[in-house]
Design a protein that fits this description.
6 helices, 3-stranded mixed sheet, Dna Ligase, domain 1, alpha+beta, Arc Repressor Mutant, subunit A, 2 domains
Length: 145
């Protein structure tokens, strides 16, 4: 199921928030870039381009917070950078983060579950894996070493 900009706007309405042009632009950007992990800066830039006007960064933060509390947006941290946000319609997925070039590779849940089952079997440790990024080197950067 794809979460639309109208779904996002309805969630804001249900929380008693007014639907302003900036909020409409933020929801539109989130819906259009549903396969992308966006920082607040990314979202702010995209929404400003759509609205063709200045948006207050605090509006982006408040809108994201409201959508996250509604369960439509999730966030995670990829390495030491800013949090990234994406629509909650995506299945849980995990990332391999290249410390050299900054690229990210998505790991399917099934592959990740197999890895974590091995960790649990060997150590007894059960990983809470809703937000997970593993640093290292991508295949291209590893060749350069």
């Amino acid at each position: 199921m794809h979460i639309s900009d109208e779904d996002l706007l309805q969630a804001l309405r249900s929380q008693g928030l007014r639907i302003t042009a900036p909020r409409r632009a933020i929801c539109g950007a989130l819906a259009r870039h549903h396969n992308t992990h966006l920082t607040v800066d990314d979202l702010h830039r995209l929404a400003e381009e759509d609205a063709e006007t200045h948006l207050d960064r605090s509006t982006v933060y408040r809108t994201i917070e409201a959508l996250e509390s509604a369960g439509l947006v999730t966030h995670m941290h990829l390495g030491h950078g800013a949090a990234v946000y994406h629509l909650a319609e995506e299945a849980h997925h995990h990332h391999l983060l290249c410390e050299n070039c900054g690229s990210t590779t998505t790991v399917d849940d099934a592959d990740f579950d197999d890895m974590m089952a091995l960790v649990t079997e060997r150590t007894g440790f059960v990983v809470n894996s809703h937000h997970f990024a593993m640093p290292g080197r991508c295949a291209d950067c590893a060749k350069e070493v």
